[in-house]
Structure formats: structure tokens, C-alpha cells
Design brief:
Length: about 140
């Protein structure tokens, strides 16, 4: 007899055995911003968040996992489809889940500014928005 056969129980057909659960090893967060935000930083997401939990990172925006309430308001606003619930992050971008946790450990990120303000700053030399697009010209 096969060594694991007794785990199935007598008389239980093989195709009715329980489906194994896949356990992912990243932290539980909420909504996660992924790679397409880098070089984009559109900020449309910031304007619709009811709890103002978007923060300015040097290369992308971040959602504070302790503040996000999973409302889904931001996801459809992103023009580059960079935002996902943590359970739906594409496998090639799973590293952004850990990044979203680690970036808040230092506690030095500033709350993201509105899209209107960001757009105004783009053309003003010396502002964060202007510097950003100088660095991330596509
Ligand atoms: Fe804000 Fe809702 Fe998006 Fe969370 S899911 S970042 S609370 S808009």
C-alpha cells in the first residue's frame, strides 16, 4: 500500500480528497502599489483615498498597510494598473509586498500630495515632482 493511502480514509475516492492549501510567505498587508508606478506617480489614487494613506516614496507611491481600509477606491483610478489587493499581486511583482512593509519601518515618508498639486509642481524647477520626472524620464 502507498505510505499516504491511510490519510485519505477508507472508501474516499481520490478525486474528492481535500485540495492542498498554498501558503504564501509574505506579510499580510492591504493594497499594494507595484512596478508600473515607478516613473509614473500619477497621483490620481491619492485623491480618492478616504483615509489619506498614500505616501511619497523616492521612486513610487506607497500605501500604508496599517492605515488602508481595503475600500478598493484607488485601484480603478490608476492609469497604469499598478495597484492590487495583496492576494492578487502578479507573481512577478510580489517583491513589492515586502517593499511596502519595509519602507514604513523608518517612519520618514511624507503623506502624498494631491494630484492637482503634483501636476502644478511638475513644471517648477526644484520641486519634488519636477526632480522626480527628471530622474525617471521614460
Ligand atoms: Fe486608500 Fe481604499 Fe486604496 Fe486602501 S484601498 S489605499 S483605503 S483608496
Amino acid at each position: 500500500m502507498c505510505p499516504g493511502a491511510d490519510l485519505l480514509g477508507a472508501g474516499v475516492p481520490r478525486d474528492e480528497s481535500p485540495t492542498p492549501t498554498i501558503v504564501r510567505s509574505y506579510p499580510t498587508v492591504a493594497y499594494v502599489i507595484t512596478e508600473p508606478c515607478i516613473g509614473t506617480k500619477d497621483h490620481a489614487c491619492v485623491d480618492v483615498c478616504p483615509v489619506e494613506c498614500f505616501y511619497e516614496g523616492p521612486d513610487q507611491l506607497f500605501i500604508n498597510p496599517d492605515e488602508c481600509i481595503d475600500c478598493d477606491a484607488c485601484r480603478p483610478e490608476c492609469p497604469v494598473d499598478a495597484i492590487f489587493p495583496d492576494t492578487d499581486v502578479p507573481s512577478e511583482w510580489e517583491k513589492y509586498i515586502q517593499k511596502a512593509v519595509d519602507v514604513f519601518k523608518k517612519g520618514d515618508l511624507k503623506v502624498a500630495i494631491t494630484r492637482e498639486k503634483w501636476e502644478k509642481e511638475k513644471g517648477v524647477a526644484g520641486t519634488a515632482a519636477n526632480s522626480y520626472y527628471q530622474n525617471y524620464k521614460k
